[in-house]
What we know:
Blueprint: H1 7-17, E1 31-32, E2 40-41, E3 48-52, H2 54-59, H3 65-69, E4 75-79, E5 87-91, E6 99-103, E7 106-107, E8 126-133, H4 137-140, E9 147-153, E10 161-169, E11 173-184, E12 187-198, E13 222-234, E14 239-254, E15 258-259, E16 266-267, E17 272-290, E18 293-311, E19 319-340, E20 343-358, E21 366-380, E22 383-394, E23 398-410, E24 415-426, H5 430-434, E25 452-465, E26 468-480, E27 483-486, E28 496-499, E29 503-516, E30 519-532, E31 545-555, E32 558-567, E33 570-571, E34 579-580, E35 583-593, E36 598-605, E37 631-638
Parallel strand pairs: 6-9
Antiparallel strand pairs: 1-2, 3-8, 4-5, 6-7, 8-9, 10-11, 10-37, 11-12, 12-13, 13-14, 14-17, 15-16, 17-18, 18-19, 19-20, 20-21, 21-22, 22-23, 23-24, 24-25, 25-26, 26-29, 27-28, 29-30, 30-31, 31-32, 32-35, 33-34, 35-36, 36-37
Amino acid sequence: MPAHFHPAALAAALATIVVPLPAIAGELPPVVVTATRTPTRSNDLLSDVSIIDREQLDRSSANSLPEFLATLPGIQTTSNGGVGASSTISLRGTNTNQTLVLIDGQRMSSATTCAAALEHLPLDQVERIEVLRGPASSLYGSDAIGGVIQIFTRQGEGAPKPGFSLGAGTYRTRQGTVAYGGQSGDTRFNLQAGWQESDSFSSIREAKGGLYDMYNPDEDRYRNGNLSARFSHRLNEDLSFGGEALHIDAKKRFDSANCDDFGTVCTANYDNRQHQQLSTYSAHLAYRVTQAWKTQLRVGQSQDKTLNWRYDPTALAAVTRQHYDTTQDQLVWQNDFALSPANKLMAALEWRQVRVSSTQAFTYTDQSTRSMVLGYQGNFGAHSLQASVRSDDIQRLGRHNNGSLAYGYHFDDAWTARLGVGTAFHAPTFNDLYWPLDMVNFFQGNPDLKPERSRNKEAGISYQHANTSASLTVYHNKVRDLLDYVSGVAPSWIGTYGNLNSATLQGASFSYARRSGDWEYRGNLDWLSAKDDETGNTLQRRARQTGTIELRRQLGQFNLGTQLQGVSSRYNNRANTQKLDGYGLLNLDANYRIDRDWSLFAKLNNLLDKEYTLVRSTLSPYNDYETPGRNLFVGVRYSPK
């Protein structure tokens, strides 16, 4: 039977760990880049941010990046099946294409769907994650309505040394990494290669009958090979340069109803497959012109190449290949000015060129964007101010201006209250704008579309001192000109997209973390109301309450962790007639340090073997996508200190 998540129970459990404990002298607050585009101590920020370091990732029970992100405040994820299946991310109730994803500062997404394939990015390749919740188009441009997720790849430290990890688990999952990196003189570098294989399970839970039944009892296998390189070199105290590269080659199988061009003959008896390659390459040069002026030039490119195989049941063995390739060239010139010890100014110029190559004959296959950005941070005793403005001139879509303003009051060195307002936008995709006349699907793009726009207000209070941090944020985000499907009319019945409705996203996020001796406590709880303003219905697959509690204990050479994740019920469809039950997952992990360099680790997820559903198909017979049952993963890691 499906597990039901009771938010009151989770809130009560959180209350038991939010207990005043003696302050312990600890580390300095971490430095965050994403929230202001300049290195800033987390206790000086006036925004809602999560910072994840490598230690947390090593100890996490998550087997994939979407699984891990789902445990953070304000984030909900879905997955269409097992390992490597397509995933979505909703940040503060927004759509997956309304959250900007950066990898080492580079945009990574498909220009045809605006989706970032985070399901293919291995956790072993990640050094650090910064999540900025709230509108950020005033810093980063299009797509940052819900916020920004920035992922930094692995970097070396200390004397150059090798490292590796190897593991295996349920569903015949195997994965490993090898790396070599460190610092030699003024040069810092890291090289890493990884692979992952899994037989996984059928992505559809069971057959339901009907023309569009997608059930195929085969195992939907997954393969992933990945490489990364990162280096930096300091020529002198003022001049440095470096670069990053990441390449991922992923192959997956999945279940789907395969129909002829008229949708009258369908079958699920075909092993659907997809081949996707993701790449980012960048180089940067930084120069300190004066003590008060630092300038940086960054150039890069990202690629998303997707190949799908399509089966036509009327031709039996006939298989066609459809490809959708995106290339994004990016150039950024940023200048940071220290106006005084308490006042900083950031000014940047950006240029981005997007190119699409596809089996579809799009009306336009390229788009350029020229942008200007200004940011300011000021401290005046107990008062703080942060502001940013940005102007994006997008080819064929015109100029779009956005801004944000935040005020903070510091009661003392630990407590800060903050207020903020900001605007953001999401530009239509190539599919929305330029999809060619499609007589099979009765659809055509609409080049007259306008970007979706949002206006956000929020207030928060945070505490950060020694080894304890806590934050409570409430927000109200109105999103207008939402892109939605417009049905066709006789005689052609050709549908398209239009800027139709608006939505109101409002809620609250609470998070808490503390280390005390051998114990570590982490928890977060979110309340969300995501409503379509016209119908009053809840947006698809948005849970009203989500939360995570993590307790961790160091026992000699053992580090033991317990995690409880809860998600309340959601509606699978826009009409709110298909309800997905809430669920709770109990996960365990253990790390045993053999010596300073060697360790063993184990992850036992969904300990109670709960059956739950993240996604149900939107066409009859409404198949449920399968989710992992109880699963175990064990491995060994060599990481010299």
